[in-house]
Amino acid sequence: MRARTPVVFTRGQSSYTQGQSPEPRVREYFYYLDHQGQLFLDDTKVKNFVTCFKDQQFLVFFFKHLKVNRSGRYEQHFHYVSFCGRERNFLRCDDQPVVFTHLLSETGHLSYCGGGNKLIFPFQPQSLFMHPGSGRVYHPAPENVYGVGLVRSALAIEFSPHFQYSAGQESSAQPTHFLWAGQRYTLTNELSKHFSVK
Q1: What gap in Å lies between CA 37 and CA 107, rounded to an integer?
Q2: Compositionally biased, Polar residues: which spans (predicted)?
Q3: Which residues face 184 on adjacent strands?
Q4: End-to-end CA distance of the chain
Q5: Cα gap 163→143, rounded to integer Å
Q6: DSSP classification of residue 60
Q7: N or C: which end of the chain has fewer CB within 10 A?
Q8: What H or E segment, with its residue span, contains residue 154?
Q9: Closest alpha carbon to 80 in 72, 88, 92
Q10: Sheet of 137-140, strands arranged across
Q11: Which has the closest alpha carbon to 111: 154, 161, 174, 47?
Q12: In terms of Cα–Cα distance, which of 189, 193, 191, 192 is closest to 178?
């Protein structure tokens, strides 16, 4: 029986092999996070719900240890890394390294990246930010990943009726307020500093 040859993948100028060992007892893996908050091995050809990681224990550990990649390896193409002992898990993202997928109304927290009630962040309605170019909605996130997360499109659609606009500007301007749980919040747009917004 022939031994299976490891497949080398190239991203930009970087090449890697899943599970490579650049030094003794160290393994490196490479991941991709899409705009729906689904995590995949980076080289997975078909990325959908069937092929994404679903084990909550793994996802919680992965994202709780995620930080900006300053390891000196693959920093240009994989901006984040999650360390697990001697294992290095590099991550690149479609948008942000945190994607909020659900609002847990019983606790007032947003859940992110498949972690259920184990990966949560306090919901801050006044801090929601709708990007004027893409229309995507963002919310503050843990500081270890630059403090900004994407709101998954399905959740953003749930939020959309609660945005309020200046009179006559509904289709062309930024929302100015967010009506939530009987309270009208003035949107701070503080997250605009993370983007090139005019």
Answers
A1: 21
A2: 11-21
A3: 179
A4: 61
A5: 26
A6: H
A7: N
A8: helix 153-159
A9: 92
A10: 120-122, 109-112, 99-104, 148-151, 137-140, 129-130
A11: 154
A12: 189
Q: Which residues face 83 on adjacent strands? A: 88
One-letter amino acid of 99: V
Is residue 64 within 8 Å of 116, Cβ to Cβ?
Answer: no
CB atoms within 10 A of CB 50: 7
Are 95 and 105 contacting, i.e. CB atoms less than 8 angstroms apart?
no
pTM as predicted:
0.89
Q: Which residues pair with 88 in a beta bridge?
A: 28, 83
Is residue 79 within 8 Å of 146, Cβ to Cβ?
no
* Tens-level pLDDT at each residue, the chain (198 residues): 444 445 666 766 579 999 999 999 999 999 999 999 999 999 999 999 999 999 999 999 999 999 999 999 999 999 999 999 899 999 999 999 999 999 998 889 999 999 999 999 999 999 999 999 899 999 999 998 889 999 999 999 999 999 999 876 665 678 999 999 999 999 999 999 998 765
Written as six digits, the tokens of 144 are 């270890």
Collapsed DSSP state (helix, strand, coil) of residue 104: strand
Contact predicate 102/115, CB 8 Å: no
Backbone torsions φ then ψ of 162, nearest 5 degrees: -90, -10
